[in-house]
Amino acid sequence: MEVMPKWAEVILVPLISLLLAAILSALVILAIGEDPIAAVKLMVTGALGSSYGWGYTLYYATNFMFTGLAVSVAFHARLFNIGGEGQAALGGLGVALACLYIDWPHWSLALIGAAVAAGLFGAAWAAIPAWLQAKRGSHIVITTIMFNFIAASLLNYVLVNVLRPKGSMDPASARFSDTVHLPTLHEMLAPIGINFSKSAPANVSLLVAVAACIFVWFLIWRTRLGYEIRSFGQSESAARYAGIQPFKIIMVTMMISGALAGMMAINNVMGEAERLVLNSVEGAGFIGIAVALMGRSHPFGVFIAAILFGFLYQGGAELALWTAIPRELIVVIQALVILFTGALDNMVRMPLERMFLAISKRGEG
Amino acid sequence: MEHYLTLIQLLDSTVRLATPLLLACLAGLYSERAGIFDIGLEGKMLAAAFFSAAVAAITGSVWIGLLAGIAASLVLSAIHGVASITFRGNQLISGVAINFLAAGMTVLIAQAWFKQGGRTPSLMGGARFEPITLPFAEALRDVPILGPLYYELISGHSILVYVAFAAVPFTWWLLFRTRFGLRLRAVGENPAAVDTAGVSVVGLRFAAVGICGILCGIAGAYLSTALQAGFVKDMSAGRGFIALAALIFAKWRPWHALYATFLFGLFGALETRPDVIEAVIGMKVQGQLLSALPYIMTVIILAGFVGKAIPPRAGGEPYVKER
Fold it and tell me: Which sequence spans correspond to the domains of chain A?
């Protein structure tokens, strides 16, 4: 039964959850003896007050758009893909191989090639847990968690034993050549007369991420496959009855999800580091869970949530720089967002539903 | 003889590394047998590790530290219980949130209290669990074969190691020989039947989640006050997930949990002794392969290629009373 109007479902519920998370975060800052209002001010100026801040905010947001979309697509089929971290790590390997071993004539071709490689590697890493879920009934959450760890070991091995240049102690690949350097926002905006910070890492991948948001929206709500994914997520038995094959949906959904997570690597590996380093994902795969939950698995919501988390990330870095508040504050905020928008959803929803029920009854009576 | 001593040493470090895994694995066993998935073992261990070390450092008493660790773990259990039992939320998402909450809060509080970059001061004397020398260990030390076995391997661990090993038969007895255990298992398989019998599903599940919290608390305390002398950031280092893997490997059975965690502990011990592996199997094994082995083996078990692991039937499903 639909007791709540759509606007309340889409805007009010996430907003209240977010407010609760914000209040608790403020209490945490108070408890460790710092001033929450000063902290917010510092975060806003640090993350949004300059084109340098924006450059970092958008750089992080690009990562989170990819991983957030990855989790969202899987959510639509009621699959919980916790493996974004591992899939993005494998995507990084794909990007590194494409950039190191292929002689690209131009960055644009390299971007396409690297994105395809990243997507393929990520999709392949997601395909194994998907196959195990579809054919053997292994719980996808557990297998994707295990695959995160296996990916970490695999990358550790590859970086130390295979990709590390001779004589280097650092477990990292060689630098990519200059031809695969992706234009940063500074280089893109300078010709049209906008002076964007030179040292910020935001780059052309941001546009790819936005395109991915549009692609996912189109896929989920405008294609036959998207319809099948959504019906499978709503009711597996009904979908099966309507002739939708669970095997196909699980495989395809997870591979799209893995490919999206993997494609994050064009931003962090190709756009920023320009080489593959150990633990290049830095938790962005897990932040995708918070982003997808907050964005209600809708690409537009994911877009907004990713920018918010990008802001939190950059703001948190500034906080750690200028105050005694460690970066881990962001991890706490992330946890609270996941808790309130995900696990405690009913706590927010139940009283609201009761309220709207009372209002609609009064309206009738 | 030399080989024998190496073996004893290897098994000794296996026991040390298996203990936190065993405690966390049994913790997960109670929770999952009652139908509550718990991927927040990692977070609970981490929180307990911090609070036991912190309180032990402040008070100088490791026992008060242990209690504080258990209390911290229980708070996270309560959050998990409220989210997944009371509000029937997604248990997996709640577990993820708890892991992050612990990862962030421990560093935040450690920084606020001790200002040492997210760690506690090193624990000394009464603020640590010291190894216990069992009776006659010194006297029997020189007896061939059995002497070193008793002195090096069986004696000389902290009290929590013995607690962990004792928890295995106790868990078996509690789950398979008592009424409470029968009900707890039933609530994970068919909660509606338990409800029909007039027993509270919610109460049983909270009890299971509570026991899980206590055991994770002990596991965390062991990490920071016995295995190491103090808390460092992210010190649980994925052990909660290895415990989860061991739980699946053990197919949710207490004695098998012991074997599984011992095996995974052995992998951990071997990682630090590549010379032993090389001597035994005659070739080098990459450390990365060893660290990934528990996860790979779990995936194979989960896939049902080597005996199928079937979780409790009502696991992960919130119970809704019929009206």
Answer: 1-34+324-365, 46-323
